[in-house]
Amino acid sequence: APKAHPVSSEPRRIQTDIERTLGLVRRLDTEKGIQGNVLSSGDHEKSDVDKSHMGSMGPIVIVRGLTTVKGLEGVELLDTLLTYLWRIHGVDYYGMSETNEAKGLRHVRTDNKTPSTTNINAADWEKKLDTYWQERLTGQDPMVILTAKDKIDAAAAEVLEPHVRKIRDEKYGWKYGCGAKGCTKLFHAPEFVYKHLRLKHPEIVLEVTSNLREDIYSQNYM
Ligand SMILES: [Zn+2]
């Protein structure tokens, strides 16, 4: 499997990553409508209070099985969270990527005695990792953005239709002309006109799709 930067194995980094992955689990579960996940339920909040007299460094998640109660913390907790994010949400945390299903290999931690195989220095790598997931935590679900984009494209074709001139050609059958003022371009299919409109007359496309964009975004996020 591809390796994360060795700095990922430092105890300080482990704690940061526990907090971050807990946040991600909550956020992604919410986005996908997953409720009652033991990994992100209230239990570890309570243990945050305990940590002062237990001397623990960070959150503990209490996992209650049918006959067992287990407290997860530190590396064990982090690995559980990372595995959950990977299997359920397709998140390769150290690889800084997210897909709709877990495919291939995700990045794994190496112990920090292994010589680094990367030239990137630790601080840069950490900054990249932090920025990437902080943006994910405050931004929008990339899968939703993708869907919205598809919807916009599909709907754009509809609203662009009036800008396509259908022309009967004696020799070649139906032709599709660009409806922009002063433009005489002809195409074999309406899709080519849409494409041409996007490339050559972006102002038309922008005008007819601006309302559409607002509609779709408000449908998705309001
Ligand atoms: Zn044109």
From TrEMBL:
Keywords assigned by UniProt, alphabetized: Nucleus
Residue ranges of domain C2H2-type in the record: 178-201
Subcellular locations according to the entry: Nucleus
InterPro entries named in the record: SE/Ars2 (IPR039727), SERRATE/Ars2_C (IPR007042), Znf_C2H2_type (IPR013087)
Predominant cellular place of this UniProt entry's protein: nucleus
GO cellular component: nucleus
Pfam families noted in UniProt: ARS2
The family this protein is said to belong to: Belongs to the ARS2 family.
Protein name (Swiss-Prot/TrEMBL): C2H2-type domain-containing protein
Naturally occurring in which organism (per UniProt): Triticum aestivum
